[in-house]
Amino acid sequence: MGPVTDHPAAGSRTATAVAHPNIALVKYWGKRDATLNLPATGSVSITLDTLTTRTTVTVDPALDRDHVILDGRVDADSGPRITTFLDLVRQRADTTARARVDTANTFPTGAGLASSASGFAALAVAAVAATGMTLTVDELSVLARRGSGSAARSLVGGFAAMDPGHRADGSDALARQIAPADHWPLSVVIALTDRDAKAVPSTVGMTASAATSPYYDAWVAQSAPDCAAAIDAIARRDLAALAAVTEASTLAMHAVMMATRPGLIYWSGATVDAIHRVRRLREVDGRQVFFTVDAGPQVKAVCEPADAPAVAAALREIPGVLETTTVGLGPGAHLVAGVT
Ligand code: PMV
Questions:
Q1: Are 56 and 89 a contacting pair, CB within 8 Å?
Q2: Which of 155, 175, 191, 200 suits a disulfide with 299, CB 3.0-4.6 Å?
Q3: In which band, very low, low, confident or very high, does the pLDDT at 55 lie, cut at 50, 70 and 90?
Q4: Rounded to a whole number, what is the distance in angstroms from the first to the last CA of the chain?
């Protein structure tokens, strides 16, 4: 039995990476291949700052299995998913050495704040370095996608576009930066409506939607034009145009979800109230803001930084909104410590 020690054994190698969650503006919902985790739709996203996953991977030939520590505790739930991901990295690095993974989030894990995106992006960067490989950002994005589709986008900072690709091996299904964070330094006010959201996992939900939602094919067909409209709005820093396409994509995705059998209702009452409030803030109060909602009940209000305090104050007044967090746009996943 390989010992787990605080000090890496001889022959081991350690790397630490950080990554931030990203929020899709044009959404991804549906897979064209489940095994390779290939998306059926493209997506456009913003990578956040402040919310951070920090992951240290130690590849240690003395270990007889992988050990996963999440937020300071042995993590039995995500252990198998992480081992499956590490197997991909090991295969590529041509090693069988097991690893110790120590990962921590500065925000609630699995509560609709995209912890799987930052988690697999940080894991990809740290694990690749700890196995002695050097991959391009494109290759890291392809790899991170195998852990979670949205993780491919956290490899790049600022504004990202994910290409669904068309190759069977998935080598062209990756995210690329379309503009850096300082191109348009937007703020995102996250309105938390449920601290421990027990949502239907995205993979389960997507598979059910593809199989049973009568709107699924129309949803997939609308993706490319929506991505093009969002990319164009970002290039022109046109908030009204980005608001229109983001809210349309969000509502269409939730329509597909709700029309799934049995219906997937990710929203709480406070989600609906917050959506209406954001619309009023824009249409009546003249604030530069729009909403987006993922596979959970939290509402993310994207706005010009000058409007963020008023948006946060308005959302906090809604009964059922537990707290708000305001963040900006941040960098892609990267190594923070040299490989030792
Ligand atoms: O990558 P996953 O499996 O976490 O799926 C992400 C799905 C949504 O968050 C609902 C939409 C998106 O594009 O991020």
A1: no
A2: 191
A3: very high
A4: 24
CA of 3 to the centre of ligand 1 (A): 37
| Neighbouring residues of 212: CB distance < 8 A, sequence distance ≥ 6 | 260, 261
Ligand 1 atom 8 nearest Cα: 294
> What atom of ligand 1 comes closest to residue 150's alpha carbon?
1
Tens digits of per-residue pLDDT, 255-267? 999 999 999 999 9
> Cα separations (Å) of 59 from 5, 90, 95, 139, 232?
13, 10, 10, 20, 43
Q: Which atom of ligand 1 is nearest to the CA of 203?
A: 3
Q: Which two tokens stand for residue 125?
A: 């960067």
DSSP assignments along 286-339, one per residue: ---EEEEE-SSS-EEEEE-GGGHHHHHHHHHTSTT--EEEEE-B-PPPEEEE--
Can you tell me the distance from the alpha carbon of 294 to that of 271, in angstroms, rounded to the nearest whole number?
Answer: 11
Average pLDDT value for residue range 187-191: 97
The overall average pLDDT reported for the chain is: 94
d(CA 234, CA 209): 29
CB-ligand 1 contact for 249 (6 Å cutoff): no
CA distance 335 to 135: 12
Q: Which residues contact 280 (CB under 8 A, 6 or more apart)?
A: none
**Higher-confidence residue: 262 or 110?**
262
Structure tokens at 336: 């923070």
pTM for the full model? 0.94
* Ligand 1 lined by 187 (C-beta under 6 Å): no
Return phi, psi of residue 172, to 5°: -110, 10
